[in-house]
Amino acid sequence: MGSSAETGIPHLETEDLFGDQKKRVRNPLVPIGALLTAGVLTAGLVSFRQGNSQLGQKLMRARVVVQGATVALMVGTAYYYGEKL
């Protein structure tokens, strides 16, 4: 392999790519929301497969609500901490 000068690709350090790690804020509720979304989706798909379409439909609607709440939490966290950093 040639050097980055030969390929025309600039050499970037890890800090250039990811920036200062101290600025990152993690919200522990977002992974919980993602897991809840996946769990409700799985339960809905299983109920559809077993032939219980009414329960499956209710679970799919619940998945939309849980997924929307998770996205709202992500946006709210980004907005809240985005102004402070």
From TrEMBL:
The regions listed as transmembrane in this protein's record are 29-48, 60-81
The record's Gene Ontology cellular component field reads: mitochondrial membrane
Is Mitochondrion found in the keyword set?
A: yes
State where it is primarily located: mitochondrion
Q: Which UniProt keywords apply?
A: Membrane, Mitochondrion, Transmembrane, Transmembrane helix
Which cellular compartments is it found in?
Mitochondrion membrane
Q: Which residues form the HIG1 domain?
A: 1-85
State the superkingdom.
Answer: Eukaryota
Q: Which Gene3D superfamilies match?
A: 6.10.140.1320
What is the official name of this protein in its record?
HIG1 domain-containing protein
Q: What organism is listed for this UniProt entry? A: Amborella trichopoda
